[in-house]
Amino acid sequence: MAVGVEQAEAALVEHYPRLVRLAYLVLPPHLGRNRRVLTAHSLAQRALPRGRTGRTPQTVAGIPLPRPGTGATAATGTTDRDRGHAFVRQQVLRRALEAEQPLLRRAWPNRSQLPPLLPQVWGVRLFPKSGGADELALDQKLAALTGAGRAAYVLRALERLDDTEVRGVLAGCGVAAPAAALAEADTVEPSALLESAEFDPCSLQARPTDLMRRRHLTRACVAAVAALAVGAVLLGGTGDGASGPLYAQNPSAERALDPARLTIAPADAWKTSDRTDFSVWPVRGSLAEDFALLRRALAVWARPGGSAGVSATPQTPTGPAMGPPQLLYAGELDGARVVVLYDGLRLVRYAEPVGGGEGVVLDFARVDAASEASASAVVVARTDTHVRYLTAPWADRVAVRDLLDPAAAPRTLRRTPDGVTAPLAASSMSRDCRTWDAMEVRDATGTRTLTDLGELTPVRLTSGPPAAPEDLGSTADRERWAHTACLLPTVRSRGVRSVNSWPYAAQTLPESNGTAHWVCTRAETWRGNGSRVFAQFQLPGSGKGAPGAVVAKAENSAACGAKDPKVLAGVLWKAKAGGSYLLAAGNDAFASLSVGGGAEGSSDGNLLAVPVKAGTQADLSGKLKDGTEADVLR
């Protein structure tokens, strides 16, 4: 089949989003989401034949055409656009598969093996919108396949090709063993989630690149401009840099902007104070007496200008302090000058590049009602892949533990004399979730497990009943968390204070399939509302770090918490021998469970297993020991 440039171009324009999604899904996961997005667009844009009279090679004659009604074409029969789509699809797929080949295989690498020349985006990272736990699990399964296996899976799911057609496309792309690729694709259940925003490289989110390491080539000019801006602020000018115009003068505002009036806690206040929170942290850092830096930080806090990047946890006010705040830290870290302040309600982190110029950031986090356990650390430096913490003065020892490897011993984490840790992997930003490094902080009252979820304060991880959650102190606690950690990105950037994972029931599976565990995970926020709850079904023999299946979710619910410590959830499960069952479990507050609708059954106690037909829709309910009716988590 001969395809001209005009036919291919028309097909490319019409089906561009689908072709880019195909490339994004087939590209190797190790490239990272930002590079995969840019590379996918580059491959689609370079899929046209060369020259104005280009024709496809003779081998293209066997390419299967798009199926009517699949989104590839809406017309029946064979059209020029069908042929053009088949051609550009094969071009995109061939180059996406080439990107996974080792660079040393050829004397000169293919263009698709190198970062794309175009498109290029400077200063921000682009990636698709995050999905839920189901999308994350599918992404992990696809990452475990080879490029050919992913291609076979995607051609089936997106292009609706049958196995014969898939073999033809893969063979045309140079895949040596198309049958093996199909067999590999069979290991992943077909899913409509490929159509979701999680895998759409045309619907993107943007985040800044590593602001702390960016430099300007003309440092002298930038320093001069910064000096003029500071001088303008000091002289009462309007200013147009990181800080905005001055407000009307009043004594309270002026006192809040005076670095000489900053509150400083005595070095040993935490040893004698009735409160053990951020208010008793001593000031630390080599720049604690750099009044020019402190004045800039206070000015930007009071009136951030358009060039300052401001972030805040949900429902955290970003207005100026009502009076002189407390200084906790001022120092230089990873190419930035960092100041951490506290006003009794909020932690505020100010950071500016050492070289001056743009790149000033201001982060707010609500920390009212903090306790010794929740005031154990603050994030003072962050890159795309690592974070550094400033630890509490009462922290005796800090270590790193991989949550996905519960049997492994913790690793010592070095700290400076000021209490700043060495860089620690920001596991919540990783897409493959092969490891999850959390920090353990030991003090006189116990050992806390803290993890980063993209905010100024780390999140405390606990385990146990909602009325009395405890820190992770046993191997059993860590084994439950090993199957929960990879679900934590679903509560990232929500102002979460703590996450408790409670194994509320263990159920012997029918047909001698072992014992499954039911786990309720609750993320609570600093602001009190906005909690997120999800129930997991954890099968026996799950691989290292494999997340449990989320079978029920709820937001702004008291379920699984101290005020309402009950939970009920169910799942359709298929035994190894082929039998299908509706399984359900509640915590020990339930006296009986029953199911109606598409299945009928009941049980005394908090566990239920009823044989059902595949695809059955049923209504599950329970009765508490006090006689109260209770519904499933939702």
Unreliable stretches (pLDDT < 50, length at least 5) are 52-62, 68-78, 230-240
Helical residue percent band: 10-25%
Number of strands: 27
State the separation between the terminal residues, measured CA to CA. Answer: 54 Å
User: So how many helices?
Assistant: 13
Q: Strand percentage, roughly?
A: 25-35%
Summary tags:
634 residues; alpha+beta; 5-stranded mixed beta sheet; 27 strands; 26% strand; globular
Polypeptide structure, described:
With 634 residues, the protein is an alpha+beta fold. It has helices at 5-14, 16-26, 33-45, 80-98, 133-143, 147-157, 163-172, 178-185, 219-234, 251-256, 269-272, 291-302, 475-482, and strands at residues 124-128, 204-208, 309-312, 326-333, 336-342, 346-353, 361-366, 377-382, 386-391, 397-402, 411-412, 424-425, 437-443, 446-451, 459-463, 470-471, 496-508, 515-525, 532-538, 549-555, 568-574, 580-586, 590-597, 601-604, 607-611, 618-624, 629-631. The strands form six sheets. Strands 10, 11, 13, 14, 15, 16, 17, 18, 19 and 20 form a ten-stranded mixed sheet that branches. Strands 3-7-6-5-4 form a five-stranded mixed sheet, with helices on one face. The chain has a four-stranded antiparallel sheet with strand order 24-23-26-27, with no helix packed on it. Strand 23 and strand 24 form a beta hairpin. Helix 6 packs across helix 7. The protein is globular and about 75 Å long. 44% of the residues are buried. Mean pLDDT is 86; it is low at 52-62, 68-78 and 230-240.
